[in-house]
């Protein structure tokens, strides 16, 4: 039986629940967060509510904000509804690109994955699998090399940053024509959220980059809801086209993730064999270990 | 029923392993990936890549190697050792990365395994391979102990016709194998019924008849029906009992060494293996091939370009490249040319080493790794320099990667290796009996630069190698795309300098006097440093220079590597500066 989460490291975080833009207003939506059954809703004025599930307000029933006994903290940021089951931190990480007017902020969908959030973040940070899992799109044999890149842990912002990541890609995005070496920057500003910045076709000279992200909702220790999307300068491709592209990519990752064992992320350095290409994953595991995270991971043996 | 890790159980039917399939099995809660290599060997591995935990059973069985679906890592048949990591194409896997394996035996139409067997597999009495007949397995949702307790009530007929008037009697029951006979009139059949413990609450019934039946289809159908009925009875009983506690499967930690970045190997040439010369034959004029098999256990994993140190009966140590194709993991194969100027190495192998002899060798070590991310690979072999090229060309062919193999030899007889070379078809071009000038002209043609992302690998006599490297440089090949291996270092070593070495990691400073090498000084001071040829050709003793100017005297480093000045072969090279700081 799964035990409810008591780990303050994960309880005291903001967690994403839904893309507000596609949440039907006026009715109750149910979901699971850290093994807790919770409900959320948007009222007619666009105000957001999150509460512990109650039989008085069943799934899909119309709701009145006044009938909710206790509201959980809410936050509307980066297009998503966020909540917290512990003590909410004052701020959520910033993504300045979301504010730029000439970008499309495309929600690519929310996917259930039968694996921990940690494994999902690690897969997002991984370039070595591109030629084998995203064949012909994000990578292609024989271009398999993961070149040296830099990883740093910013103490000030408490986030992981991997820079100078370069990889040969046959079709880096919907807007690219032909193969090219693409430069990536990865950011992990939250234990369950990661973003990547990659050169935007046509905007390389200006140094502007597309942003692709996953915001993960830990439903249970081995069950994740991945909220995915991107923030692009590509004005030629339709919202639907960009969304389909991201869905294809995630659909290729999902079966790999669900075949990883153990499903929870092992933090013990002796659990698995790393190589130089895994620098960012190693930094991520170490960062989580340093925070003392226990939920959804196998902690390192002291 | 308690977990018995020592006991052998059937875990799959032979028919579960068709060509190039990976079967997902389970024993005592542990998942198994079971796959048959093209040479017939059945591998039973823990169902988890040690890199990122992905199931091996969703990997690709390529016949000689299993390929990870996630990152394309390759693991060899038998040894389960990693042979290639695509993310780092220029490196040989630096450590012995190896999946966890279980014992496996294929017998009587079944594959048998044990978590931790004390004794070798022994066939149950009464089974003979030619006669035994494996029935279809029947999975049962019940604890192994419950299945065993009720399986002895199994009723069957000797010939596949209705069981009602058959006499069934129990002969023995040892807790996992139940032997019973059924007879009617003159007809009799003996059945061994095994219970495979899948996990706490699941089992598989696997039956084997000791005689081939006259009407196999009727008998198979009869047993399928009878065993399904038995399953229904057992599952009904199991449902009335409390569900057993699930088995906790723990994952063994990887070796400490594997969890870290590569550590340096121990001192000197290694002779950790004992091998038997299983076969010796002439494969070209004056070239003898030796197939070396392990006396016990498994030979360590190799990759194309790897060599071994062979310790000869006369006390000498020599390096020879392995010519094995991928997946040929039951032996190390080397080929030795009789050298007219032999200092005793090749003559000893040719004259004094015979089939059945035991030799000491090192594990395979790779200082000449093959990249597999080239759009085209050009392999150039001169004389016996063909040996590493044979391993490389066979690898490229198996992986369907484009390559050309150019073999320079005095004559067809000198070239030899027909049994391997014919397999390359038009990818192999012989260049026979050429004079030095013609050789140079031919190399100019071969090394015409046709495009980016090409790599050249060259092995042969010194003068030819020098010529090929010079031509490649003239024709615009970047230094980083030309890889070479010398037989020996023909340079005259100048060891008159004396200097100081500071070892950054060990935090000590040592003096290297004239007439002694860095490597010797390290060994004399008890510092572990690997080495093999000890003449600046093989690259095993490579060390990182943090500070100071090396005086390179080896033939292993390329020109650009020499100019960078951050690497040194400690067995021959010295210092131009008074002090070298080494990362040791």
Top keywords for this entry?
heterodimer, A: 302 residues, alpha+beta, N-terminal domain of TfIIb, Naphthalene 1,2-dioxygenase Alpha Subunit, Chain A, domain 1, 2 domains, seven-stranded antiparallel sheet, three-stranded antiparallel sheet, 5 helices, globular, B: 584 residues, six-stranded antiparallel sheet, 11 helices, 18% helix, 31% strand, elongated
Helix proportion of chain B: 10-25%
- CATH architecture descriptor of the largest domain in chain A: Alpha-Beta Complex
Specify the oligomeric state. heterodimer
Discrete helix count of chain A: 5
Rounded to an integer in angstroms, the radius of gyration calculated over CA atoms of chain B is: 30 Å
Largest inter-chain contact set:
A-B, 30 and 37 residues
What class do helices, strands and sheet pairing of chain B give?
A: alpha+beta
Biggest pleated-sheet summary of chain B:
6 strands, antiparallel
Q: What is the averaged pLDDT score of chain B?
A: 90
Describe the overall structure:
The complex is a heterodimer of chains A (302) and B (584). Chain A has helices at 8-11, 117-125, 130-133, 239-257, 279-291, and strands at residues 15-19, 29-33, 36-42, 48-52, 74-77, 80-83, 104-113, 150-154, 159-169, 180-190, 193-199, 209-220, 223-232, 265-266, 297-298. Chain A has 302 residues and is α+β, with helices and mostly antiparallel strands. Chain A folds into two domains: 8-83, N-terminal domain of TfIIb (Single Sheet); 96-297, Naphthalene 1,2-dioxygenase Alpha Subunit, Chain A, domain 1. In chain A, strands 7-13-12-11-10-9-8 form a seven-stranded antiparallel β-sheet, with helices on one face. In chain A, a hairpin with a 4-residue loop joins strand 8 (150-154) and strand 9. With 584 residues, chain B is α+β, with helices and mostly antiparallel strands. In chain B, the strands form eight sheets. In chain B, strands 12, 13, 14, 15, 16 and 17 form a six-stranded antiparallel β-sheet that branches. A six-stranded antiparallel β-sheet of chain B has the order 21-20-23-18-19-22. In chain B, strands 26-25-24-27-28 form a five-stranded parallel β-sheet, with helices on both faces. In chain B, helix 5 (386-398) links the parallel strand 24 and strand 25. In chain B, helix 1 (144-151) crosses helix 2 (216-240) and helix 8 crosses helix 9. Classes of the chains: A alpha+beta (302), B alpha+beta (584). At the A-B interface, helix 3 of A face helix 3 of B.
């Amino acid at each position: 039986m799964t035990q409810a989460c008591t780990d303050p490291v994960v309880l005291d975080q903001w967690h994403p629940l839904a893309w507000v833009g596609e949440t039907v207003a006026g009715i109750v939506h149910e979901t699971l967060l850290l093994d807790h059954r919770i409900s959320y809703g948007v009222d007619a004025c666009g105000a957001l509510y999150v509460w512990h599930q109650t039989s008085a307000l069943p799934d899909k029933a119309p709701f009145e904000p006044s009938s909710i006994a206790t509201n959980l903290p809410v936050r509307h940021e980066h297009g998503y509804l966020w909540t917290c089951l512990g003590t909410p931190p004052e701020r959520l990480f910033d993504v300045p690109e979301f504010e730029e007017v000439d970008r499309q902020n495309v929600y690519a969908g929310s996917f259930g994955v039968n694996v921990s959030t940690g494994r999902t973040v690690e897969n997002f940070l991984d370039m070595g699998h591109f030629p084998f899992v995203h064949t012909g799109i994000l990578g292609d044999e024989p271009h398999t090399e993961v070149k040296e890149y830099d990883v740093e842990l910013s103490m000030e912002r408490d986030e992981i940053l991997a820079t100078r990541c370069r990889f040969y890609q046959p079709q880096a995005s919907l807007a690219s024509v032909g193969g090219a070496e693409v430069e990536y920057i990865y950011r992990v500003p939250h234990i369950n959220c990661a973003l990547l910045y990659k050169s935007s076709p046509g905007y390389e000279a200006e140094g502007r980059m597309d942003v692709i992200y996953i915001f993960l909702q830990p439903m249970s220790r081995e069950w994740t809801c991945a909220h995915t999307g991107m923030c692009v300068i590509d004005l030629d491709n339709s919202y639907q086209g960009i969304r389909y592209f991201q869905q294809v990519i995630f659909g290729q990752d999902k079966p790999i993730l669900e075949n990883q064992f153990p499903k929870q992320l092992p933090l013990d350095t002796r659990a698995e064999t790393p190589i130089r290409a895994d620098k960012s994953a190693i930094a991520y595991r170490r960062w989580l270990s340093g925070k003392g995270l226990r939920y959804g991971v196998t902690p390192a043996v002291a | 029923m308690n977990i018995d890790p020592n006991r052998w159980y059937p875990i799959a039917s032979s028919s579960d392993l068709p060509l190039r399939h990976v079967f997902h099995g389970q024993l005592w809660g542990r998942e198994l990936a079971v796959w048959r290599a093209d040479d017939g060997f059945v591998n039973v591995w823990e169902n988890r890549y040690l890199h990122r935990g992905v199931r091996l059973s969703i990997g690709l069985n390529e016949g000689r190697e299993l390929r990870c679906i996630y990152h394309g890592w390759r693991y060899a048949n038998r040894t389960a050792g990693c042979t290639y990591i695509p993310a780092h194409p220029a490196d040989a896997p630096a450590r012995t990365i190896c999946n966890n394996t279980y014992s496996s035996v294929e017998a009587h139409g079944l594959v048998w395994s044990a978590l931790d067997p004390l004794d070798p597999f022994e066939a149950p009495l009464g089974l003979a391979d030619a006669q035994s007949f494996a029935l279809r397995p029947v999975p049962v949702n019940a604890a192994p102990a419950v299945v065993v307790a009720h399986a002895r009530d199994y009723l069957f007929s000797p010939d596949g016709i209705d069981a009602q008037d058959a006499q069934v009697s129990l002969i023995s029951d040892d807790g996992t194998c139940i032997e019973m006979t059924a007879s009617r009139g003159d007809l009799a059949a003996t059945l061994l019924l095994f219970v495979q413990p899948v996990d706490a609450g699941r089992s598989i019934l696997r039956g084997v008849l000791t005689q081939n039946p006259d009407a196999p289809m009727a008998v198979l159908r009869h047993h399928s029906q009878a065993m399904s009925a038995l399953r229904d009875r057992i599952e009904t009983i199991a449902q009335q009992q409390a569900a057993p506690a699930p088995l906790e499967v723990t994952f063994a930690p990887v070796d400490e060494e594997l969890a870290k970045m590569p550590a340096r190997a121990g001192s000197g040439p290694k002779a950790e293996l004992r091998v038997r010369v299983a076969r010796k034959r002439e494969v070209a004029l004056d070239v003898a091939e030796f197939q070396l098999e392990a006396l016990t256990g498994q030979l360590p994993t190799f990759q194309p370009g790897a060599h071994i140190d062979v310790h000869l009966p006369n006390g000498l140590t020599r390096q020879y490249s392995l010519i094995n194709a991928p997946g040929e993991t039951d032996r190390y194969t080397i080929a030795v040319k009789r050298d007219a100027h032999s200092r005793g190495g090749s003559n000893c192998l040719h004259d004094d080493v015979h089939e059945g002899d035991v030799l000491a060798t090192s594990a395979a070590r790779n200082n000449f790794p093959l990249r597999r991310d080239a759009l085209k690979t050009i392999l150039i072999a001169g004389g016996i320099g063909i040996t590493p090229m044979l391993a490389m060309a066979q690898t490229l062919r198996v992986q369907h990667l484009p390559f050309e193999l150019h073999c320079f030899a005095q004559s067809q007889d000198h070239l030899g290796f027909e049994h391997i070379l014919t397999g390359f078809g038009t990818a192999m071009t012989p260049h026979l009996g050429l004079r030095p000038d013609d050789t140079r002209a031919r190399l100019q043609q071969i090394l015409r630069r046709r495009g980016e992302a090409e790599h050249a690998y060259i092995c042969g006599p010194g003068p030819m190698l020098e010529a090929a490297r010079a031509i490649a440089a003239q024709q615009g090949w970047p230094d980083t795309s030309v890889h070479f291996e010398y037989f020996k270092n023909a340079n005259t070593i100048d060891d008159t300098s004396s200097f100081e070495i500071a070892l950054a990691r060990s935090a000590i400073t040592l003096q290297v006097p004239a007439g002694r090498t860095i490597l010797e000084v390290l060994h004399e001071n008890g510092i572990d440093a690997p080495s093999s040829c000890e003449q600046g050709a093989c690259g095993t003793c490579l060390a990182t220079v943090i500070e100071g100017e090396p005086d390179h005297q080896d033939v292993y480093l390329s020109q650009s590597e020499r100019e960078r000045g951050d690497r040194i072969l400690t067995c021959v090279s010295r210092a131009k500066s008074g002090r070298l700081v080494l990362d040791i």
